Amino acid sequence: MRAKLEVFATVLGFIGLIGTVVVTAIPMWRVSAFIGANIIVMEELWEGLWMNCYRQADIKMQCKVYDSLLILPPELQAARGLMCVSIVLVVISLSVTGCGTKKSSCCDDDMKSKNITIALGGSLYLLSCLTTLIPVSWVGHTVIRNFYNTQVMDSQKRELGEALFLGWATSGILLIAGIIFLFSYCKRSSKEEEPSTEMSLMAGKDGLKANSVYLERTPSSFYKQQEYV
């Protein structure tokens, strides 16, 4: 059962890796808000970490890479770095936990080394969850705050893009994967401690037997005299 959980967590790790790459790449972090009585909208704006895209009616989408990093707001600048760190962490977590699973041939049969690697991989999954959750939540908070800010013009207001919802789902998947691997580590370590305690009890009994002195009864001289009588 534990081996199946580890395989399931590894699959979740692959899904989390795909999710972080997609969230980092797609330009739908912030989308234009349709505010006002005009129902017909001729233009839609998408803003991402690397480019912004314009989609007009009956015209193909046109995307343009940002000319400079400095023109981006602070939350998008931080999101760039954190999402790249998250991708690297998920790749490392997959490699480390792949070596620590029971079905892996790495580390031979050294369960202690496998336990250390699987605990390290689970911790990295939790760290990658944070590096994904923080930028997504930061951008989402900024979008909601500006949307309800009366001092911001309607043309500058944005709505939550699909990338934010996908980022929240991806961080949840990474969280579940990390918890499963740490749970597997706790179960393994507890099972390793049980035989060691039994061995220590057996060793203690053997020591008591070795230290005990066997006293042999020898017949006394008075008993020998009574035999003659």
Automatic annotation (TrEMBL):
Keywords: Cell junction, Cell membrane, Membrane, Tight junction, Transmembrane, Transmembrane helix. It is a multi-pass membrane protein. Its main location: other. Signal peptide: none annotated. The chain crosses the membrane at residues 7-29, 78-97, 118-144, 164-186. Claudins function as major constituents of the tight junction complexes that regulate the permeability of epithelia. This is Claudin. It comes from Scomber scombrus. The lineage of its organism: Eukaryota, Metazoa, Chordata, Craniata, Vertebrata.
